[in-house]
Amino acid sequence: MITLDQPTQRAFSTAVAFIALTFIFVGLRLFLRARAKQLSFLSDGLCLASFVLFCAFVGLMLEYILNIGKSDPFKPSTPTDLAKFLKILYVEQVLFTFDISLVKLSLLALYWNVFGVHRRTKIVIATVTAGCVIWCIVFTFLAAFRCRSIDYAWVPVPPPGTCMSRSDVYLPLEGTNLFFDIVVLCIPVFTIGQLNLSKGKKIPVIGIFVVGVSVCVASIGRLVGITQGASRPLSA
Q: Which GO cellular component terms, listed alphabetically, does the Swiss-Prot or TrEMBL entry include (predicted)?
């Protein structure tokens, strides 16, 4: 039986909880939409693809926790473990950047089907979609090719001038990600006000989407974490 220290147990429990909750919510969404005969190849397909990438993301995290970071996953104890940690961190950052883009595009495709009644709404959704696609291409590329040679991305101290600093990439990434999260969140809230629904029906629907505020809070948390970690050197 694998023995994990307390910090690792927390990381392990969090990863398992997130994958379980995501499985339940994605499965419930697909089940209900299939039952209502409203499955969409684009929006639901993107949702399923983002779930698969999220599983890969969590799988890498669990592999690292169980095989390398048993004492403290965020403080590698040897130079070899630090290199492995940075390599997994590199892959996960690329996966994360692409995955959150798929989530936004899945929501926007759903908005198009549900709220794309008025021409103005369609223009807004199409414009935000174009922005998200451009964001995905730019920041996935930067996450993957932050260093002139890819293998320098998991070198603790790469040669001077070979890599962009992590904060120079990830601070703009998280800042603009937060911006798009807020924009995507606001689209249904303002659109519902234009639909011919009774006040009693509008409030619950708006409330469902307002839950998405938690995503924005998570983005703010990542921004704070990146800002605080930018000045701390990596060491084993």
A: membrane
